[in-house]
Design a protein that fits this description.
This is Cell division coordinator CpoB. This protein has a domain at about 140-260: Serine Threonine Protein Phosphatase 5, Tetratricopeptide repeat (Alpha Horseshoe). Helices cover about 75% and strands about 0% of the residues. It contains 11 helices and no strands. The longest helix is centred in the N-terminal third of the chain and has 61 residues, at about 25-85.
Length: about 260
Amino acid sequence: MRSAQWIPVVLLGAAIAASSIPAHADDSQAVIQLYQQITGLQQEIRELRGQNQEITHELDDLRKRQRELYMNTDQRLQALEAAVSGGATAASSGSAANGGTGSPSAASPSMPSASTGQPAASSTSTPAAVAVASGGNGLDAYQQAFNLLKNSHYHEAVDAFKSFIKQYPQSPYVPNAAYWMGEALYVEQHFNQALAQFRLVVNQYPQSNKVAASMLKIGYSQYELKQWPSARKTLQNVVNNYPGTSAARLAADRLSRMQREGH
């Protein structure tokens, strides 16, 4: 780079020296033109570098907005599923209180019951009930991990969910923690790991209310990995096995998109 900066100076010196010799006037003029061309090219390079920086910044912003949009969509899905099951008033009210946007920062983590892994009856549980619930099943640790996820600290959230599952392997919140780990990995674009995590939820916790959403995310992950036939098959299974749900609608939307894209 430094040597490149010296080139115009050297050429200019050569041009000046050459211009002092009448016999080589034409050559001097050619050198000056060459110097001007190089100077112009350097200016263009500087402009291109500036444009490249602007594009990189815009791309980072787009990625951030994409992640936020994905999380908002997922929160709406969770709230709708909870409302349909009649088991998670918290998720529904959280979305409504947020103007229907389903912002992750406003949504509450879905709390499974102790016996089935389904969402708790309501977030309106009394403080005493919550205190009892958090006594030995790791509720506090689960909430802390989920808060990291809501605040977009995805890497930290994955570690926190891992720690929670290791510390409370019998907790009824484990299926949800496993699912949200997959979500964090997906948002971080670790699609292979996310795919494995969502499959784990489906295979190890078939009674969890996260199965349909996990199936959908398996299809999404396969899509991101360009596993087109597998993605189509998975998404079609979601449409067939969970008719009338948000997961089925989103799967159908992705299938339509794949068709438009020629996948």
